[in-house]
């Protein structure tokens, strides 16, 4: 068997695993930054609800 065929057969699953991890990482980052954006928008629109001041009655 030729060495490049063996190398291809050995490294293909590793590359696929790295691709899956990269896609999962990108998806998780998108969800996290999306949630942070939602919180920041809500905080900008209604700062008195999110940031209650303890000194005010």
Write the layout of secondary structure elements.
Blueprint: H1 3-45, H2 47-50
Concise summary:
With 57 residues, the chain is mainly α. It is built from two helices and no strands.
What is the helical fraction, as a range of percent? Answer: over 70%
Give the tally of β-strands.
0
Structural class from helices and strands?
mainly alpha
Radius of gyration: 24 Å
Mean pLDDT: 81
Largest sheet: none
Number of helices: 2
Instruction: Kindly report how far apart the N and C termini lie.
Output: 81 Å
Beta-strand percentage range: under 5%
Order of helices and strands: HH
What ranges have pLDDT less than 50 throughout 5 or more consecutive residues?
none
The shape, in one word, is rod-shaped
Structure explained in plain terms:
By secondary structure, the protein is an all-alpha fold. The protein has two helices and no strands. The longest helix has 43 residues. It is rod-shaped, with a radius of gyration of 24 Å.
Any key phrases for this structure?
rod-shaped, single chain, mainly alpha, 57 residues, 2 helices
């Amino acid at each position: 068997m030729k060495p490049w065929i063996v190398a291809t057969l050995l490294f293909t699953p590793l590359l696929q695993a790295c691709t899956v991890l990269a896609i999962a990482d990108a998806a998780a980052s998108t969800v996290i930054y999306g949630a942070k954006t939602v919180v920041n928008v809500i905080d900008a629109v209604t700062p008195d609800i999110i940031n209650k001041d303890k000194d005010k009655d």
